[in-house]
Amino acid sequence: MASAAVNLVAKKLLKEEAQKRLSSKQDPYFTTLPPKRKGGKPIKVKRADTDVPPGLTPADIAILLKVRRRAYRLDNMMTLPILHTKYGLSALVGLLPVVGDFADVLLGLTVYNTCRKAGLDKATTSKMLFNIGLDGVLGLVPLLGDVADTLFRCNTRNLVELERFLTKKGLANLDKLRVVEDDGHGGA
User: Fold this and answer.
1) Which SS3 state, helix, strand or coil, does residue 2 take?
2) CA distances, 27 to each of 15, 44, 57, 167 (Å)
3) Quick check: 140 and 98 in contact, CB under 8 A?
4) Which of 78, 136, 157, 165 could form a disulfide with 105 if both were Cys (CB 3.0 to 4.6 A apart)?
5) Which among 128, 18, 143, 162 is positioned nearest to 91, based on CA atoms?
6) What CA–CA distances, in Å, run from 137 to 15, 77, 83?
7) Cα–Cα dist 151/157, whole Å
8) Spatial CA neighbour of 160 closest among 54, 56, 25, 48
């Protein structure tokens, strides 16, 4: 009974903190489409995949989509029916003492390794590695650490960092393209 109360308090505290830090987007995987009403009756809210930032190269798009899929599987693939909390393979693996936490860190590093192919800057790299390290340390605490590990979602945080980096990179690509177009038309 006491552990259930501790889990509930930890969930509330960590969820609020995670929502503050993950940016204004609630769900980096899906966009909620506005519901359409038929005959005055509300229908089910639909979701669509989040758009890719403009100006990215095909290689960057492939990296982003691959990281989205992996992070979703590791952090949000399933829902715990009682608490309506999403969890993924990372949380299940993390339940195994020590070995599971080590495997969880390795899974986080595979996501990071895929992100690295996009040519990350040092600030983004350090944030991602910090997220993975903190996730590993949180997972080492028995039971409460597994709950915190599930709610921290380091792979989703790393996805958000990758999207921020790629958005900046895409905008820079668009600016370069505009400059080239302006130079080509202005000279004649």
Assistant:
1) helix
2) 13, 18, 24, 17
3) yes
4) 136
5) 143
6) 18, 23, 24
7) 11
8) 25
Residue 126 predicted with pLDDT over 60: yes
Q: Do 89 and 77 meet the contact criterion of CB atoms below 8 Å apart? A: yes
- Fill in the amino acid letter for 17: E
pLDDT at residue 13 greater than cutoff 60: no
Q: Cα–Cα distance between 145 and 133 in angstroms, integer?
A: 13
Read off the pTM.
Answer: 0.76
The Cα–Cα gap between 86 and 72 comes to 10
Say how many Å lie between the first and final Cα of the chain, rounded.
Answer: 79
- Residues 29, 132: Cα–Cα separation, whole Å: 20
d(CA 112, CA 108): 6
Please name the residue that has the structure tokens 């599971």. Answer: 100
Q: What are the tens digits of pLDDT across the range 42-101?
A: 666 677 777 888 899 999 999 999 999 999 999 988 888 887 888 899 989 988 888 999
